[in-house]
Specification:
Elements: H1 2-10, H2 22-31, H3 33-48, H4 52-58, H5 60-69, H6 82-109, H7 111-131, H8 135-163, H9 169-194, H10 202-208, H11 211-223, H12 228-233, H13 237-248, H14 254-269, H15 273-277, H16 283-298, H17 301-314, H18 319-347, H19 349-375, H20 385-404, H21 406-417, H22 420-452, H23 455-474, H24 487-491, H25 497-500, H26 503-506, H27 508-517
The structure holds beta-D-glucopyranose (BGC).
Residues 42, 177, 180-181, 184, 296, 301-302, 305, 333, 407, 410-411, 434, 438 line the site of beta-D-glucopyranose (BGC).
Protein backbone atom coordinates (compact mmCIF):
# COMPACT_ATOMS: atom_id res chain seq x y z
CA UNK A 1 0.00 0.00 0.00
CA UNK A 2 1.52 3.23 -1.13
CA UNK A 3 -0.01 5.32 1.60
CA UNK A 4 1.64 3.20 4.20
CA UNK A 5 4.96 3.11 2.41
CA UNK A 6 5.03 6.85 1.92
CA UNK A 7 4.05 7.67 5.43
CA UNK A 8 6.47 5.20 6.84
CA UNK A 9 9.33 6.90 5.12
CA UNK A 10 8.49 10.17 6.79
CA UNK A 11 7.51 8.53 10.03
CA UNK A 12 5.20 11.41 10.78
CA UNK A 13 2.35 9.18 11.82
CA UNK A 14 4.14 8.69 15.10
CA UNK A 15 3.47 12.34 15.84
CA UNK A 16 -0.26 12.43 15.40
CA UNK A 17 -1.86 14.85 17.78
CA UNK A 18 -4.61 14.20 20.25
CA UNK A 19 -5.30 11.56 22.83
CA UNK A 20 -8.20 9.67 24.29
CA UNK A 21 -11.19 11.93 24.58
CA UNK A 22 -14.31 11.11 26.55
CA UNK A 23 -15.90 10.93 23.15
CA UNK A 24 -13.69 8.02 22.11
CA UNK A 25 -14.21 6.19 25.37
CA UNK A 26 -17.98 6.50 25.19
CA UNK A 27 -18.07 5.35 21.60
CA UNK A 28 -15.90 2.38 22.42
CA UNK A 29 -17.97 1.39 25.43
CA UNK A 30 -21.14 1.33 23.37
CA UNK A 31 -19.46 -0.46 20.52
CA UNK A 32 -18.06 -3.05 22.89
CA UNK A 33 -21.63 -4.18 23.56
CA UNK A 34 -21.00 -6.30 20.50
CA UNK A 35 -18.44 -8.18 22.55
CA UNK A 36 -20.86 -8.52 25.44
CA UNK A 37 -23.44 -10.09 23.17
CA UNK A 38 -20.94 -12.57 21.86
CA UNK A 39 -19.60 -13.43 25.30
CA UNK A 40 -23.09 -13.92 26.66
CA UNK A 41 -23.75 -16.45 23.93
CA UNK A 42 -20.49 -18.26 24.58
CA UNK A 43 -21.25 -18.51 28.26
CA UNK A 44 -24.98 -19.16 28.33
CA UNK A 45 -25.40 -22.36 26.32
CA UNK A 46 -23.38 -24.68 28.58
CA UNK A 47 -25.58 -23.93 31.57
CA UNK A 48 -28.87 -23.89 29.66
CA UNK A 49 -28.26 -27.23 27.99
CA UNK A 50 -27.71 -28.83 31.36
CA UNK A 51 -30.96 -27.45 32.85
CA UNK A 52 -33.49 -30.14 33.55
CA UNK A 53 -36.54 -28.16 32.44
CA UNK A 54 -34.90 -27.19 29.15
CA UNK A 55 -33.99 -30.80 28.40
CA UNK A 56 -37.47 -32.02 29.38
CA UNK A 57 -39.12 -29.57 27.02
CA UNK A 58 -36.98 -29.83 23.92
CA UNK A 59 -34.82 -32.89 24.21
CA UNK A 60 -36.69 -35.53 26.18
CA UNK A 61 -34.82 -38.28 24.37
CA UNK A 62 -31.52 -36.81 25.54
CA UNK A 63 -32.71 -36.91 29.12
CA UNK A 64 -33.76 -40.53 28.79
CA UNK A 65 -30.40 -41.41 27.28
CA UNK A 66 -28.54 -39.61 30.01
CA UNK A 67 -30.53 -41.39 32.70
CA UNK A 68 -29.94 -44.73 31.02
CA UNK A 69 -26.23 -44.04 30.89
CA UNK A 70 -25.87 -42.81 34.40
CA UNK A 71 -25.06 -46.32 35.53
CA UNK A 72 -22.08 -46.59 33.21
CA UNK A 73 -19.24 -44.77 34.80
CA UNK A 74 -17.05 -43.59 31.97
CA UNK A 75 -16.27 -39.98 32.82
CA UNK A 76 -14.98 -39.22 29.34
CA UNK A 77 -18.21 -40.13 27.52
CA UNK A 78 -20.96 -39.06 29.91
CA UNK A 79 -22.14 -36.06 27.95
CA UNK A 80 -21.44 -37.02 24.36
CA UNK A 81 -24.68 -36.09 22.62
CA UNK A 82 -25.16 -34.86 19.07
CA UNK A 83 -28.40 -32.89 19.41
CA UNK A 84 -27.28 -30.83 22.34
CA UNK A 85 -23.95 -29.97 20.79
CA UNK A 86 -25.81 -28.89 17.67
CA UNK A 87 -27.85 -26.47 19.77
CA UNK A 88 -24.59 -24.91 20.94
CA UNK A 89 -22.74 -25.01 17.65
CA UNK A 90 -25.43 -23.88 15.14
CA UNK A 91 -25.01 -20.27 16.23
CA UNK A 92 -21.37 -20.22 15.19
CA UNK A 93 -22.12 -21.64 11.77
CA UNK A 94 -24.71 -18.89 11.18
CA UNK A 95 -22.18 -16.30 12.38
CA UNK A 96 -19.67 -17.63 9.90
CA UNK A 97 -21.96 -17.04 6.92
CA UNK A 98 -23.23 -13.72 8.24
CA UNK A 99 -19.78 -12.25 8.54
CA UNK A 100 -19.39 -12.36 4.76
CA UNK A 101 -22.54 -10.27 4.22
CA UNK A 102 -21.50 -8.03 7.05
CA UNK A 103 -18.26 -7.28 5.28
CA UNK A 104 -20.13 -5.81 2.27
CA UNK A 105 -22.52 -3.86 4.46
CA UNK A 106 -19.56 -2.45 6.37
CA UNK A 107 -17.72 -1.40 3.25
CA UNK A 108 -20.67 0.19 1.46
CA UNK A 109 -22.63 1.70 4.33
CA UNK A 110 -20.02 2.07 7.08
CA UNK A 111 -19.34 0.45 10.43
CA UNK A 112 -22.36 1.89 12.23
CA UNK A 113 -25.08 0.31 10.05
CA UNK A 114 -23.32 -3.00 10.39
CA UNK A 115 -23.45 -2.73 14.18
CA UNK A 116 -27.07 -1.57 14.03
CA UNK A 117 -28.19 -4.47 11.83
CA UNK A 118 -26.27 -6.92 14.02
CA UNK A 119 -27.89 -5.61 17.21
CA UNK A 120 -31.38 -5.68 15.74
CA UNK A 121 -31.19 -9.20 14.33
CA UNK A 122 -29.67 -10.40 17.57
CA UNK A 123 -32.51 -8.79 19.51
CA UNK A 124 -35.13 -10.61 17.44
CA UNK A 125 -33.22 -13.86 17.94
CA UNK A 126 -33.13 -13.49 21.70
CA UNK A 127 -36.86 -12.72 21.85
CA UNK A 128 -37.58 -15.80 19.73
CA UNK A 129 -35.42 -17.91 22.00
CA UNK A 130 -37.12 -16.67 25.12
CA UNK A 131 -40.62 -17.47 23.85
CA UNK A 132 -39.79 -20.49 21.68
CA UNK A 133 -42.60 -23.04 21.89
CA UNK A 134 -40.89 -25.56 19.59
CA UNK A 135 -37.40 -26.79 18.82
CA UNK A 136 -37.71 -25.37 15.29
CA UNK A 137 -38.22 -21.83 16.61
CA UNK A 138 -35.48 -22.32 19.14
CA UNK A 139 -33.06 -23.19 16.36
CA UNK A 140 -34.26 -20.30 14.16
CA UNK A 141 -33.62 -18.03 17.14
CA UNK A 142 -30.10 -19.46 17.50
CA UNK A 143 -29.45 -18.80 13.82
CA UNK A 144 -30.60 -15.17 14.17
CA UNK A 145 -28.31 -14.77 17.17
CA UNK A 146 -25.50 -16.13 15.04
CA UNK A 147 -26.21 -13.61 12.30
CA UNK A 148 -26.14 -10.82 14.89
CA UNK A 149 -22.84 -12.09 16.25
CA UNK A 150 -21.41 -12.28 12.73
CA UNK A 151 -22.25 -8.62 12.09
CA UNK A 152 -21.05 -7.50 15.51
CA UNK A 153 -17.75 -9.38 15.45
CA UNK A 154 -17.09 -8.06 11.98
CA UNK A 155 -17.71 -4.40 12.62
CA UNK A 156 -16.93 -3.78 16.30
CA UNK A 157 -13.19 -4.58 16.33
CA UNK A 158 -12.66 -2.53 13.18
CA UNK A 159 -14.67 0.31 14.65
CA UNK A 160 -12.61 0.30 17.81
CA UNK A 161 -9.31 0.19 15.93
CA UNK A 162 -10.28 3.12 13.76
CA UNK A 163 -11.53 5.28 16.61
CA UNK A 164 -8.55 4.75 18.85
CA UNK A 165 -5.41 6.87 18.64
CA UNK A 166 -2.50 4.66 17.56
CA UNK A 167 -0.70 4.62 20.88
CA UNK A 168 -3.74 3.34 22.72
CA UNK A 169 -5.30 1.28 20.00
CA UNK A 170 -4.35 -1.99 21.63
CA UNK A 171 -5.91 -1.16 24.97
CA UNK A 172 -9.10 0.28 23.53
CA UNK A 173 -9.53 -2.51 21.06
CA UNK A 174 -9.30 -4.86 23.97
CA UNK A 175 -12.47 -3.36 25.30
CA UNK A 176 -13.99 -5.81 22.87
CA UNK A 177 -12.37 -8.83 24.47
CA UNK A 178 -13.08 -7.43 27.91
CA UNK A 179 -16.75 -7.27 26.97
CA UNK A 180 -16.62 -10.85 25.72
CA UNK A 181 -15.26 -12.08 29.03
CA UNK A 182 -17.75 -10.02 31.05
CA UNK A 183 -20.51 -11.47 28.87
CA UNK A 184 -19.31 -14.99 29.65
CA UNK A 185 -19.14 -14.31 33.39
CA UNK A 186 -22.55 -12.63 33.49
CA UNK A 187 -24.01 -15.58 31.60
CA UNK A 188 -22.52 -18.01 34.14
CA UNK A 189 -23.96 -16.02 37.03
CA UNK A 190 -27.37 -15.71 35.41
CA UNK A 191 -27.51 -19.43 34.73
CA UNK A 192 -26.64 -20.03 38.34
CA UNK A 193 -29.63 -17.92 39.39
CA UNK A 194 -32.20 -19.00 36.78
CA UNK A 195 -31.46 -22.66 37.39
CA UNK A 196 -32.96 -22.18 40.83
CA UNK A 197 -36.26 -20.73 39.54
CA UNK A 198 -39.21 -23.00 40.21
CA UNK A 199 -41.63 -23.55 37.37
CA UNK A 200 -39.09 -24.56 34.76
CA UNK A 201 -38.87 -21.28 32.86
CA UNK A 202 -35.45 -20.19 34.11
CA UNK A 203 -33.80 -21.07 30.83
CA UNK A 204 -36.20 -18.69 29.03
CA UNK A 205 -34.90 -15.88 31.20
CA UNK A 206 -31.30 -16.93 30.54
CA UNK A 207 -31.82 -16.86 26.78
CA UNK A 208 -34.04 -13.77 26.77
CA UNK A 209 -31.66 -11.59 28.76
CA UNK A 210 -29.30 -11.68 25.80
CA UNK A 211 -31.63 -9.01 24.42
CA UNK A 212 -30.40 -6.42 26.93
CA UNK A 213 -26.94 -5.79 25.44
CA UNK A 214 -28.53 -6.13 22.00
CA UNK A 215 -30.84 -3.20 22.75
CA UNK A 216 -27.88 -1.14 23.97
CA UNK A 217 -25.86 -1.92 20.87
CA UNK A 218 -28.77 -1.20 18.52
CA UNK A 219 -29.62 2.12 20.14
CA UNK A 220 -25.95 2.97 20.61
CA UNK A 221 -25.27 2.40 16.93
CA UNK A 222 -27.83 5.08 16.07
CA UNK A 223 -26.01 7.70 18.12
CA UNK A 224 -22.40 6.66 17.64
CA UNK A 225 -20.20 8.66 15.29
CA UNK A 226 -18.98 6.99 12.12
CA UNK A 227 -15.20 6.54 12.01
CA UNK A 228 -13.16 9.09 10.01
CA UNK A 229 -11.71 6.23 7.93
CA UNK A 230 -15.18 5.13 6.95
CA UNK A 231 -16.33 8.70 6.16
CA UNK A 232 -13.31 9.22 3.92
CA UNK A 233 -13.94 5.86 2.31
CA UNK A 234 -17.29 7.28 1.22
CA UNK A 235 -15.77 10.50 -0.10
CA UNK A 236 -16.62 13.10 2.58
CA UNK A 237 -13.24 14.50 3.53
CA UNK A 238 -14.47 17.70 5.22
CA UNK A 239 -16.87 15.79 7.37
CA UNK A 240 -14.11 13.35 8.23
CA UNK A 241 -11.84 16.17 9.33
CA UNK A 242 -14.45 17.58 11.68
CA UNK A 243 -15.05 14.14 13.07
CA UNK A 244 -11.36 13.50 13.56
CA UNK A 245 -10.98 16.81 15.40
CA UNK A 246 -13.85 15.90 17.65
CA UNK A 247 -12.54 12.42 18.34
CA UNK A 248 -8.97 13.47 18.99
CA UNK A 249 -9.95 16.59 20.94
CA UNK A 250 -7.65 18.90 18.95
CA UNK A 251 -7.83 20.97 15.76
CA UNK A 252 -4.41 19.86 14.75
CA UNK A 253 -5.24 16.63 12.97
CA UNK A 254 -3.78 17.39 9.56
CA UNK A 255 -1.09 14.74 9.66
CA UNK A 256 -3.41 11.97 10.56
CA UNK A 257 -6.10 13.15 8.14
CA UNK A 258 -3.56 13.32 5.36
CA UNK A 259 -2.53 9.76 5.98
CA UNK A 260 -6.10 8.54 6.12
CA UNK A 261 -6.90 10.25 2.81
CA UNK A 262 -3.77 8.87 1.29
CA UNK A 263 -4.67 5.39 2.38
CA UNK A 264 -8.21 5.82 1.17
CA UNK A 265 -7.11 7.02 -2.27
CA UNK A 266 -4.96 3.97 -2.62
CA UNK A 267 -7.86 1.84 -1.48
CA UNK A 268 -10.24 3.31 -4.06
CA UNK A 269 -8.04 2.24 -6.92
CA UNK A 270 -8.68 -1.30 -5.94
CA UNK A 271 -12.28 -2.29 -6.12
CA UNK A 272 -12.40 -5.78 -4.83
CA UNK A 273 -10.95 -6.37 -1.36
CA UNK A 274 -11.33 -10.11 -1.87
CA UNK A 275 -9.23 -10.09 -5.01
CA UNK A 276 -6.77 -7.72 -3.35
CA UNK A 277 -6.11 -9.77 -0.32
CA UNK A 278 -5.06 -12.61 -2.57
CA UNK A 279 -2.31 -10.48 -4.09
CA UNK A 280 1.21 -11.44 -3.16
CA UNK A 281 1.90 -8.19 -1.34
CA UNK A 282 -0.88 -8.91 1.13
CA UNK A 283 0.34 -12.41 1.87
CA UNK A 284 1.35 -11.60 5.47
CA UNK A 285 -2.09 -10.15 6.24
CA UNK A 286 -3.88 -13.04 4.54
CA UNK A 287 -1.86 -15.66 6.35
CA UNK A 288 -2.29 -13.97 9.73
CA UNK A 289 -6.01 -13.36 9.24
CA UNK A 290 -6.39 -17.11 8.74
CA UNK A 291 -3.88 -18.46 11.22
CA UNK A 292 -4.49 -16.17 14.19
CA UNK A 293 -8.17 -17.11 14.68
CA UNK A 294 -7.38 -20.75 13.83
CA UNK A 295 -4.68 -20.86 16.50
CA UNK A 296 -6.87 -18.98 18.96
CA UNK A 297 -9.50 -21.69 18.82
CA UNK A 298 -6.94 -24.50 18.81
CA UNK A 299 -5.74 -23.34 22.22
CA UNK A 300 -8.81 -25.31 23.33
CA UNK A 301 -10.23 -22.38 25.33
CA UNK A 302 -13.81 -23.04 24.35
CA UNK A 303 -13.66 -26.47 25.82
CA UNK A 304 -13.59 -24.62 29.12
CA UNK A 305 -16.03 -21.89 28.09
CA UNK A 306 -18.70 -24.20 26.67
CA UNK A 307 -18.23 -27.26 28.74
CA UNK A 308 -16.75 -26.20 32.08
CA UNK A 309 -19.85 -27.23 34.07
CA UNK A 310 -19.99 -30.51 32.20
CA UNK A 311 -16.25 -31.09 32.44
CA UNK A 312 -16.10 -30.41 36.16
CA UNK A 313 -19.15 -32.60 36.71
CA UNK A 314 -17.54 -35.41 34.71
CA UNK A 315 -14.45 -35.12 36.82
CA UNK A 316 -16.33 -35.68 40.02
CA UNK A 317 -16.92 -32.13 41.27
CA UNK A 318 -20.39 -31.93 42.82
CA UNK A 319 -23.28 -30.05 41.17
CA UNK A 320 -22.82 -26.80 43.02
CA UNK A 321 -19.05 -26.88 43.03
CA UNK A 322 -18.96 -27.46 39.29
CA UNK A 323 -21.03 -24.39 38.70
CA UNK A 324 -18.95 -22.38 41.13
CA UNK A 325 -15.83 -23.55 39.35
CA UNK A 326 -17.26 -22.25 36.10
CA UNK A 327 -17.88 -18.91 37.79
CA UNK A 328 -14.33 -18.89 39.13
CA UNK A 329 -12.82 -19.55 35.73
CA UNK A 330 -15.16 -16.89 34.35
CA UNK A 331 -13.86 -14.42 36.95
CA UNK A 332 -10.23 -15.25 36.23
CA UNK A 333 -10.97 -14.71 32.55
CA UNK A 334 -12.20 -11.16 33.19
CA UNK A 335 -9.39 -10.20 35.57
CA UNK A 336 -6.61 -11.57 33.40
CA UNK A 337 -7.97 -9.66 30.42
CA UNK A 338 -7.30 -6.49 32.44
CA UNK A 339 -3.63 -7.48 32.65
CA UNK A 340 -3.53 -7.51 28.89
CA UNK A 341 -5.29 -4.18 28.57
CA UNK A 342 -2.73 -2.50 30.79
CA UNK A 343 0.36 -4.10 29.27
CA UNK A 344 -0.30 -4.59 25.58
CA UNK A 345 0.68 -1.09 24.47
CA UNK A 346 3.60 -0.94 26.88
CA UNK A 347 5.30 -4.28 26.44
CA UNK A 348 3.84 -5.22 23.08
CA UNK A 349 1.97 -8.12 21.60
CA UNK A 350 4.75 -10.64 21.16
CA UNK A 351 5.76 -10.93 24.79
CA UNK A 352 2.15 -11.59 25.78
CA UNK A 353 1.75 -14.19 23.05
CA UNK A 354 4.96 -15.92 24.09
CA UNK A 355 4.45 -15.88 27.84
CA UNK A 356 0.80 -16.88 27.44
CA UNK A 357 1.79 -19.75 25.15
CA UNK A 358 4.32 -21.19 27.58
CA UNK A 359 1.93 -20.88 30.52
CA UNK A 360 -0.93 -22.51 28.63
CA UNK A 361 1.33 -25.33 27.56
CA UNK A 362 2.50 -26.10 31.09
CA UNK A 363 -1.05 -26.03 32.43
CA UNK A 364 -2.46 -28.23 29.68
CA UNK A 365 0.23 -30.84 30.23
CA UNK A 366 -0.40 -30.72 33.98
CA UNK A 367 -4.17 -31.14 33.50
CA UNK A 368 -3.65 -33.99 31.03
CA UNK A 369 -1.26 -35.77 33.37
CA UNK A 370 -3.55 -35.34 36.40
CA UNK A 371 -6.65 -36.56 34.60
CA UNK A 372 -4.69 -39.40 33.01
CA UNK A 373 -3.30 -40.49 36.38
CA UNK A 374 -6.69 -40.40 38.06
CA UNK A 375 -9.03 -41.65 35.35
CA UNK A 376 -6.69 -43.68 33.13
CA UNK A 377 -8.13 -44.79 29.82
CA UNK A 378 -11.29 -46.40 31.12
CA UNK A 379 -12.59 -43.14 32.58
CA UNK A 380 -13.17 -44.39 36.08
CA UNK A 381 -12.03 -42.60 39.17
CA UNK A 382 -12.54 -39.42 41.14
CA UNK A 383 -10.40 -36.64 42.53
CA UNK A 384 -9.68 -36.12 46.19
CA UNK A 385 -10.45 -32.61 47.41
CA UNK A 386 -6.85 -31.47 47.35
CA UNK A 387 -6.28 -32.86 43.86
CA UNK A 388 -9.50 -31.27 42.65
CA UNK A 389 -8.25 -27.93 43.97
CA UNK A 390 -4.94 -28.39 42.21
CA UNK A 391 -6.72 -29.23 38.97
CA UNK A 392 -8.86 -26.13 39.32
CA UNK A 393 -5.71 -24.09 39.91
CA UNK A 394 -4.14 -25.32 36.66
CA UNK A 395 -7.35 -24.67 34.74
CA UNK A 396 -7.53 -21.14 36.15
CA UNK A 397 -3.86 -20.50 35.29
CA UNK A 398 -4.56 -21.76 31.78
CA UNK A 399 -7.59 -19.48 31.41
CA UNK A 400 -5.56 -16.54 32.74
CA UNK A 401 -2.78 -17.17 30.24
CA UNK A 402 -5.28 -17.30 27.38
CA UNK A 403 -7.04 -14.20 28.65
CA UNK A 404 -3.93 -12.03 28.49
CA UNK A 405 -2.64 -13.47 25.23
CA UNK A 406 -4.56 -15.21 22.48
CA UNK A 407 -7.97 -14.08 23.76
CA UNK A 408 -7.64 -10.36 23.16
CA UNK A 409 -4.75 -10.52 20.68
CA UNK A 410 -6.67 -12.98 18.55
CA UNK A 411 -9.01 -10.11 17.73
CA UNK A 412 -6.61 -7.20 17.99
CA UNK A 413 -3.85 -8.35 15.67
CA UNK A 414 -5.98 -9.21 12.61
CA UNK A 415 -7.91 -5.95 12.96
CA UNK A 416 -4.81 -3.77 13.13
CA UNK A 417 -2.68 -5.27 10.38
CA UNK A 418 -4.95 -4.77 7.36
CA UNK A 419 -4.79 -1.56 5.31
CA UNK A 420 -8.09 -0.09 4.25
CA UNK A 421 -8.23 -1.72 0.82
CA UNK A 422 -8.27 -5.20 2.29
CA UNK A 423 -9.68 -4.47 5.73
CA UNK A 424 -13.22 -5.65 5.12
CA UNK A 425 -12.02 -8.89 3.56
CA UNK A 426 -9.37 -9.46 6.20
CA UNK A 427 -11.80 -8.98 9.02
CA UNK A 428 -14.39 -11.22 7.37
CA UNK A 429 -11.80 -13.96 7.02
CA UNK A 430 -10.77 -13.50 10.64
CA UNK A 431 -14.31 -13.70 11.97
CA UNK A 432 -15.32 -16.63 9.78
CA UNK A 433 -12.23 -18.70 10.52
CA UNK A 434 -12.81 -18.00 14.21
CA UNK A 435 -16.46 -19.03 13.95
CA UNK A 436 -15.65 -22.09 11.87
CA UNK A 437 -13.26 -23.45 14.45
CA UNK A 438 -15.47 -22.38 17.35
CA UNK A 439 -18.14 -24.45 15.60
CA UNK A 440 -15.80 -27.42 15.22
CA UNK A 441 -14.71 -27.30 18.85
CA UNK A 442 -18.34 -27.06 20.02
CA UNK A 443 -19.32 -29.93 17.73
CA UNK A 444 -16.41 -32.20 18.32
CA UNK A 445 -15.11 -31.71 21.83
CA UNK A 446 -17.40 -34.14 23.62
CA UNK A 447 -16.82 -36.75 20.92
CA UNK A 448 -13.06 -36.18 21.02
CA UNK A 449 -13.01 -36.39 24.81
CA UNK A 450 -14.87 -39.66 24.59
CA UNK A 451 -12.31 -41.07 22.14
CA UNK A 452 -8.98 -39.40 22.97
CA UNK A 453 -9.70 -39.26 26.70
CA UNK A 454 -7.07 -37.36 28.69
CA UNK A 455 -4.90 -37.33 25.54
CA UNK A 456 -7.13 -34.53 24.26
CA UNK A 457 -5.33 -32.09 26.53
CA UNK A 458 -2.02 -33.08 24.96
CA UNK A 459 -3.58 -32.59 21.55
CA UNK A 460 -4.34 -28.94 22.35
CA UNK A 461 -0.95 -28.58 24.05
CA UNK A 462 0.74 -29.64 20.80
CA UNK A 463 -1.09 -26.86 18.98
CA UNK A 464 0.03 -24.36 21.59
CA UNK A 465 3.63 -25.37 20.86
CA UNK A 466 3.07 -24.86 17.13
CA UNK A 467 1.45 -21.44 17.57
CA UNK A 468 4.14 -20.26 19.97
CA UNK A 469 6.86 -21.21 17.49
CA UNK A 470 4.87 -19.43 14.80
CA UNK A 471 4.70 -16.25 16.85
CA UNK A 472 8.43 -16.42 17.51
CA UNK A 473 9.36 -16.44 13.85
CA UNK A 474 6.47 -15.00 11.89
CA UNK A 475 4.68 -12.44 14.00
CA UNK A 476 6.29 -9.00 13.98
CA UNK A 477 5.65 -6.55 16.81
CA UNK A 478 2.81 -4.18 15.90
CA UNK A 479 2.73 -2.15 19.11
CA UNK A 480 2.23 1.58 18.54
CA UNK A 481 2.34 1.39 14.75
CA UNK A 482 -0.47 3.46 13.19
CA UNK A 483 -2.71 1.22 11.09
CA UNK A 484 -1.93 3.06 7.90
CA UNK A 485 1.79 2.66 8.49
CA UNK A 486 1.77 -1.03 9.11
CA UNK A 487 3.45 -1.71 5.81
CA UNK A 488 6.89 -0.82 7.07
CA UNK A 489 6.61 -3.53 9.70
CA UNK A 490 6.24 -6.17 6.99
CA UNK A 491 8.97 -4.65 4.90
CA UNK A 492 11.40 -4.88 7.75
CA UNK A 493 10.53 -8.50 8.56
CA UNK A 494 13.01 -11.23 7.63
CA UNK A 495 10.34 -13.41 5.97
CA UNK A 496 7.39 -11.19 5.06
CA UNK A 497 9.70 -8.54 3.64
CA UNK A 498 10.14 -10.72 0.55
CA UNK A 499 6.48 -10.40 -0.30
CA UNK A 500 5.98 -6.76 0.48
CA UNK A 501 9.06 -5.41 -1.24
CA UNK A 502 7.62 -6.45 -4.62
CA UNK A 503 5.12 -3.67 -4.17
CA UNK A 504 7.05 -0.97 -5.99
CA UNK A 505 6.95 -2.97 -9.20
CA UNK A 506 3.39 -4.14 -8.83
CA UNK A 507 1.83 -0.83 -8.08
CA UNK A 508 3.05 2.05 -10.12
CA UNK A 509 -0.16 4.07 -9.68
CA UNK A 510 0.33 4.18 -5.96
CA UNK A 511 3.93 5.18 -6.27
CA UNK A 512 2.93 7.95 -8.60
CA UNK A 513 0.46 9.28 -6.06
CA UNK A 514 3.04 9.13 -3.39
CA UNK A 515 5.56 11.12 -5.31
CA UNK A 516 2.97 13.67 -6.39
CA UNK A 517 1.93 14.29 -2.83
CA UNK A 518 5.44 14.48 -1.67
C1 LIG B 1 -12.61 -16.15 21.78
C2 LIG B 1 -13.75 -17.00 22.23
C3 LIG B 1 -13.54 -17.39 23.67
C4 LIG B 1 -13.31 -16.18 24.53
C5 LIG B 1 -13.02 -16.55 25.95
C6 LIG B 1 -12.47 -14.99 22.69
O1 LIG B 1 -11.43 -14.20 22.28
O2 LIG B 1 -12.83 -15.73 20.45
O3 LIG B 1 -13.88 -18.10 21.39
O4 LIG B 1 -14.64 -18.09 24.16
O5 LIG B 1 -12.27 -15.41 24.02
O6 LIG B 1 -12.85 -15.43 26.74
Amino acid sequence: MAGGAFVAAGGKGQNYNGGVTAFVVFACVVAAMGGLIYGYDLGISGGVTSMQSFLDKFFPSVERKKKAEEGKDNAYCKFDDAILTLFTSSLYLAALFASFFASSVMKIFGRKPSMFVGGLIFLIGSILNAIAPTVALLIIGRILLGIGVGFGNQSVPVYLSEMAPAKLRGALNMGFQMAITIGILVANLINYGTNKIDGGWGWRLSLGLAGVPAILMTIGAIFLPETPNSIIERGQVDKAKIMLQKIRGTDNVDNELHDLIDASEAAKKVENPWRNILQRKYRPQLVLCILVPFFQQLTGINVIMFYAPVLFKSLGFGDNSSLMSAVITGGVNVLATLVSIFTVDKFGRRILFLEGGVQMLLCQVAVGVMIGAEFGTNGQGSFSDSKADLLLFFICAYVAAFAWSWGPLGWLVPSEICPLEIRAAGQAINVSVNMLFTFFIAELFLKLLCHFKFGLFFFFAAFVVIMTVFVTFFMPETKGVPIEEMNRVWKAHWFWGKFVSDEAENNKVHDHNTVARD
